[in-house]
Amino acid sequence: MTRPPTSRDLARLAGVSQATVSRVLTNNPKVNPETRARVLRVLEEANYIPNALARAMKTGRTDTIGVFMTRVTSPFHAELLDEIGRVLSALGLHMILWNIEHDPEESVGKMIQQRLVDGFVLTSATYDSSLHTIAVASGTPTVLLHRGIDGLDCDQVVGDNWQGAYDAGRYLAEAGHTDIGLVTLEHTGNTSRDRDLGFRAALADAGIRIKPRNVLTVGVPHADGHAAAQKLLSAKKPPTAIYTVTDLLAFGILDGARALGVRVPGDLWVIGFDNTDLAAWESFDLTSVEQPVHAIVETGIDLLRRRIENPDRPAEIITLPCPLKIRKSTANTPWRS
Amino acid sequence: MTRPPTSRDLARLAGVSQATVSRVLTNNPKVNPETRARVLRVLEEANYIPNALARAMKTGRTDTIGVFMTRVTSPFHAELLDEIGRVLSALGLHMILWNIEHDPEESVGKMIQQRLVDGFVLTSATYDSSLHTIAVASGTPTVLLHRGIDGLDCDQVVGDNWQGAYDAGRYLAEAGHTDIGLVTLEHTGNTSRDRDLGFRAALADAGIRIKPRNVLTVGVPHADGHAAAQKLLSAKKPPTAIYTVTDLLAFGILDGARALGVRVPGDLWVIGFDNTDLAAWESFDLTSVEQPVHAIVETGIDLLRRRIENPDRPAEIITLPCPLKIRKSTANTPWRS
To answer: CB burial class (10 A; 0-12, 13-18, 19+) of residue B44?
Structure first.
């Protein structure tokens, strides 16, 4: 290794004074653009700092987007991450992935201040977190995908979870079910909240009262769906249908029902939410409300790029439809009562 | 927005000459360390360039590791990614994730040259790719996890796929199976190769001949396992056991068997490889050879950090055991023949 080049070496190579090199490095607007370009080229060629850093200094951009996510092992989140990667790659952008499940919020907050990236994608905003507020306040262009926060002044692209849940409830009501189970999550974000409230609204509109003992609030893993099914199905008069707010819980419910010998859809109908790839697998064949991942990501990254170009654009909140996808965990025939 | 600070402003703030600011920015070794630290602090506080870039200039490090991966939607890869994220976060390191499935190899090669990161983690090295060679040749510290490349002079941490596959074969042979199906992948990497050859070796050692029509080479998705099962099981004398080289294919095989009404393990035993979280789900209850993700990632990131500290350390290749985890897709009783 030779010694790193000095500013004198660099000035000589660029054919400028040392003061000019210094002005370029300190973003002094007085340097004329051609000289500036020549100096930066020399700096890059001399490798006195990494190329990407030199380019970042030149353009003020890192061509990198920071993505905040939780639970990449959940099938839905893995599909969301894959789609984000696909869209960013197609645009020639790098992705820094922060799995905020593993990072204390404090250290994530610090990272946000560091301006490592040109923009933020938040996929798991929750009401009890201040990350989205910190991200927006940092001035770095930010978009919320999949999970939105009401009233937050930033671009957001979400599914119409309420309507999708309503359609699932109406579908069960119209099929003649009256004993219906709801396996739900704490309302920490808009997805769990709207997927719960939309479903209840449909039952209320159909004049169906959901029994308090048929509503279980659980955690996110498969095992929690499994336990919930076992609890609901061991009642004297078990529900004839169970709706839940994520596919992962629905898989657990199907497995819990299977363990008890309860036949689906013969004895029990099950509906999930997300329409993940796994929902179509023979083991599950799950009726599910679709979260339109592809459209959410495409639209969201487009908003983010437009915000990077024009930081003063007014914030947009875009809501995309969540259609019900019917498979064999429910039947197309009325429920025998 | 005010104008960006000039080198004159910065020099005044730091109490040094403009020439000193310039020397600091060009890494001139003549600046005394205290002065250097003071100037960099002023630069950071003035935000004349992003903090992370200033720190990168100061330390020569970005505190960021580049992770190359494919197929994050496959349950095994999602678990691997989650574990890498967990370990890097605990060390205060950022992760740039390159999903090389979406990026043409050429552009990935370019990224490697840009020195955006302190080190590379490659999780999906294949014989027909030159990425690992480019990564190692770039001089950036590199570790191969999960997939290794024989003879490549860099740190590698892999599971003992051959031995794990051998144990699966011996287990089937000892249980009395003689008609055995093998659903395998092209040998594009060491995992598919060793998981195939180890299994064949065990059958050969047990004096069992595997019929050519019982060996199917397929693609990676669940649907390919499903189709393979349907093909193998519709033969006049179908195999009584099927072993395959990934859990994802095994899930497809279980689903294909289910669609035909073939009972597992009554009519058919199934063994997968990876021991993903899903393998334990009731739907599958899959006997599987474990890929020790946690140990592979912990060990691999440790090797990478040691290489970043000491680039001249000799390369280490570490192989960790892959134990067979028996569940209900196989029985603990001898096969009735």
So the answer is: middle
A6, B26: Cβ pair inside 8 Å?
yes
Q: ipTM of this predicted complex?
A: 0.83
25-54 of A, contacting B, C-beta below 8 A: 25-30, 48-53
CB contact under 8 A, A258 and B282: yes
- Looking at domain B7-49, its CATH superfamily turns out to be lambda repressor-like DNA-binding domains (1.10.260.40)
Q: Which CATH class is domain B64-159+292-320?
A: alpha beta
CA distance B121 to chain A (A): 14
Partners of residue B217 on adjacent β-strands: B184
CB contact under 8 A, B19 and A18: yes
Residues on chain A touching B5 (C-beta within 8 angstroms) = 26-27
Minimal CA separation from B267 to chain A, in Å? 18
The closest of B91, B156, B201 to A107, measured between CA atoms, is B91
Rounded Cα gap, residues B314 and A91, in angstroms: 38
Considering only the C-alpha atoms of chain A, give the largest distance between any 2 of them, rounded to a whole number of Å: 90
Fold classification of A161-290 is Rossmann fold (3.40.50)
Cα–Cα distance measured from residue A6 to residue B65, given in angstroms and rounded to the nearest whole number: 28
Asked if A4's CB is within 8 angstroms of B27's CB, the reply is: yes
Q: Nearest Cα to B97, choosing from B118, B73, B79, B120?
A: B120
Q: Is the minimum CB–CB distance between A230 and chain B shorter than 8 Å?
A: no
- CATH code of A64-160+292-320, in short, is 3.40.50.2300
Domain ranges of chain A: 7-58, 64-160+292-320, 161-290
Predicted confidence pLDDT, tens digits, chain B (337 residues):
334 566 677 788 888 988 887 777 666 678 888 888 888 788 777 765 555 655 666 566 788 899 999 889 999 999 999 999 999 989 989 888 888 877 767 777 777 777 678 999 999 898 888 888 888 888 899 999 999 999 899 999 999 999 999 999 999 999 999 999 999 999 999 999 999 999 999 999 999 999 999 999 999 999 999 999 999 999 999 999 999 999 999 999 999 999 999 999 999 999 999 999 999 999 999 999 999 999 999 999 999 999 999 999 999 999 999 999 999 999 988 876 5
